[in-house]
Amino acid sequence: MTRPTPPHFHQRLDEKETLSHESWKIFQIMAEFVQGYETLASIEPSISIFGSARFKEDNPYYKLTVEISRLLSDAGFAIVSGGGPGIMEAANKGGQEGRSPSVGLNITLPHEQVSNPYQDISLDFKHFFARKVMFVKHASAYVVMPGGFGTLDELAEILTLIQTAKSRRIPVVLVGSEFWKGLLDWFKTTMVPFGTISTSDLQLMTLCDKPQDVVDVIFAFYQNRALSPSAEEQRKLLEL
User: Domains of the chain (ranges plus CATH)?
Assistant: First the structure.
């Protein structure tokens, strides 16, 4: 007579299979990092641009992003976006119209993310955290257009890294006073009085509305410092 298998034995087998699968995922994650490091090392200096995937070509911020990206590309900066539609597409389009490379860091999503056709260099990621490191590691500046939760996530990420000195200081430019003013006011009138951030943290961001102002802010920041990371900054970036 066959003895029935205890239910907990099947459970342990499932756990082993899950652990084995997760262990092999490490190699996939490593491959994404290696490919990203090797590909993006040659495109410095670069600027990462973020914003809503939902804006269409007739949206004023789409058009503004194309102009900003074209100016920055002609100024010698590779343009890096998330590779999808909306503001990401506008960033790559403007970058391609300029003289520097247009780069897309694409992410696999169940909806919204469809690669745009304006990418000279295209990388595909399955893991958000690997992709986010690539945005930071090679960026000489962040340009943040109006967007949703993903845009806020990228903004909070770079501000946290700079605030905690885990990354080098770079310009973080918010574009669109109408969109960002309420958030910045909340930082000032709520977060600062509650003591969750310092007044000096407000200086980590610059608010702009005109394309040329974005370019001028970035060049002013680097007027007395090198675009390339110093040896100490390189060490910090290795620890991201």
Answer: 43-238 (3.40.50.450)
